[in-house]
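Deviation from plan, reported transparently: serine complex.
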Amino acid sequence: MRWTTAKIRQSFLDFFAERGHTIVPSASLIPKGDPTLLFVNAGMVPFKDYFLGVRTPQHLRVVDVQKCLRISGKHNDLEAVGRDTYHHTFFEMLGNWSFGDYYKEEAIRWHWELITKVWGVDPSLLYATVHKDDKEAEDIWIKLKVLPRDRILQFGDKDNFWEMGPTGPCGPNSEISIDRGEGACSPEKNHPGQKCFVNVDGCERFIEIGNLVFIQYNRDESGKLTPLPKKHVDTGTGLERTAAALQSIEAGKVLGNYDIDLFQTIIKKIEIAAKELGDGHAYGKNVESDISYRAIADHARTMTFLIADGVTPGNTDREYVLRRIIRRAARHGRYLGIHRPFLAMAHAGVVEAMGDAYPEIKKAAAKTAEVITQEESRFGETLDRGLELIDTELAHIKKGGGHTLPGEIAFKLYDTYGFPLDLTEDVLRNHSIDVDVAGFNIFMDQQRTRSRIVRAGLQGIARGPSQFENEGLSSRFVGYHSYEGESEVLAAGGRDGDQVAVVVAETPFYPEGGGQIGDRGVIESASGAILEVLDTRKAEGSIVHVGRILRGDAGDFARGARVKLKVDKLRRDAARLNHSATHILHYALRDVLGSSVHQAGSLVDPDKLRFDFAHTGPVKDDALATIEEEINARIRENAEVTVEEMAYDDAIKAGALAFFGDKYGDRVRVVRMGDFSVELCGGTHISRTGDVGMFKLEAESGVAAGVRRIEAVTGQGALETIRKREKILEEIGAQLGARDGAAVDRLEKLLAREKELEKKLRAMEQKLASGASGASSEETVTEVGGIKVVTRKLDGVDPRMMREIADRMRQKHGSAVVALGSDLGDGKVALLVAVTPDLTSKIKAGDIIKNIAPIVGGTGGGRPDLAQAGGRDATKLDEALAKVATLVS
Ligand code: SER
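Because the crystal trials were delayed, the predicted structure below was used instead.
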């Protein structure tokens, strides 16, 4: 074979390189910094900024082979792939580029030369088209004298004006088409009523093999065309169709794009898979299987290149495109009788056929095969069941004479069996059945609402009830009197290993609200999986349980699953108790401080309660004591706590306190305690006030202007707090060697003594600093082998005071050996050596003092950290202190 795809690529690059173009490699399929596009869908996309003049190119002439994907947006060929012989999602585009350099004349002349001289196509097979208003291009063709006038054709915007998308650089173009002979098309089938010709939609006989775009405008969002600062050339030649045309000429028969060498390598691999795993139909033997062969070959290229460019299957944007492509290909495998993962085989064919031209797919081959197989296996589990469902539904529809698959079924296929909508549509297309897309979208919207609720729950965004309650997505709290229940999952989200959120129809779990924290506990699925609930929250009228999976996986809690719910009873009871206590506190505050006091917020958890209320200035100690007294009296009164549902207006008439900031529906819960407290409240409560046991105020503080906060503990928590305090008091007593009242006396004395000593020391230091006696010296600091030795001579400082001074010096220096000598008068001297604790293992104060005391005619000793001595020769003090450094070294 002369014109293999590899040769065509090379000849194109060489031809333009010889004409001053720099060869550049293909850019990634993922456009860099272009939010308008999901994928590079044309060779010009990576050069967009050069055309727009916002970036300056390094070279004015460039040639390349660019990977392209037409699977979304303006250029989307997905639906046609497989059904005919020339559409692709992934394809390669040969292009030469002039960035404000040469223009129409060279572009046209060179392409003609390439096609007829290099590739050897007979000019009698070729046609040129130009835009009807592009006189310049038409004249160039005429002047070239290579084509008769009747084969230089004019067309309008639809055929001869090229745009990459709704916005961006664009301009008129000139195309070169080849006539592939009568056998290449069946006009009755492809375009009934129209003869084969250039630009006839669906015609497979006249094929464009060169698109020369003369970029000169930018189209903005409003649709307006603005001339660009410079004019550019953007050419695109589809490699696959060019190869099909050239290889057909060589073979003397019409070949489709999928018959070229490159695709045959891939298709051979799929044939092996079909033979080993499937029904064994080879390519070219059966119309239906051939569609699947082509689709698989095409999709195999797309998945291979997308994964190599860093995309992995997922549920949004590019990730979802990849997932859809893999799933579509897997479904086509079923049509070849293959019921096991096989796409890695097709992928191997792609790497074999294209790995030399695109090293990135070789490099990523192992990972790519893994990603593909994983996605395929995942989908494989539900694919067959989904296809069965479609068969059943089809039989149903056909029997009833219908033509539409209900949206609900399409949604079920999507939601339960992982069928992207386009896959379902594709399957049904063979049966001329449509999908009720509008119906599908309604279900999708509900699904989105569910996931939004779940997400909101995961993020802890709790909002009041809303219209979503009307969509059957509300949950009912049934936990006022029970801690367990059974229900059905309405929505779930999150991932294994991460936090998971579950919404059920009825739950005993109290969702955070009215200051009371959300319940904890466990949810068990019928399949035995366990979710540990760490928090429960309200979101848009639903109750969301947030937690992590302890056994099984997130799939066990999918929508529709039956579950058992169990609340952590001890925790709830503690919270319940504290919640009731806040009502009593609220009452007592109003009783003692006046009815202008009202609640501004609260937090009730199992260990403590916090209550914020509007009040100016701190609450005095005696008022606090009265409040605490009053609360405990009400607890001992053991008043009955009753809960009654009634209309909001009736509740207010009955004197209920409505909490500031809370929202109430028409029916409200009224919580009464004895004859002293009536409040609207959705929280959980005890049945008699005595259940609180004890109420202990912990703190009173200001949190904002005009808002005070009380913190308190109750019941067992209060007892524990008191015990903890008692223990601390006992320890203090033990340290002081006195208890109760005596301890206070003792402490007072100690503090007074400390004050007195402080005073003396300060006076002494002042005396030293002013050098009152004239003989006290400054510190002398020397370093011996990394150890600081600090010495100081004092005048008239007694040994006790020397210790204080030494302590200060030790503190000041951190790590040091301190030596002090004091002249006490009458020839008497005192010496002191102190060593910081980090050094006492090496240097002992006692050893040093023993060595220096004899110098002043004395003796001494002491501990490793402190030693003192007396002596009788004041004239030798300096000598004794100087010896310390020597001893340390
Ligand atoms: N931009 C034109 C195309 O994609 C020529 O490269 O067909």
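Confidence is low (pLDDT under 50) at residues 461-471, 771-775. We consider this an acceptable substitute for the interim report.
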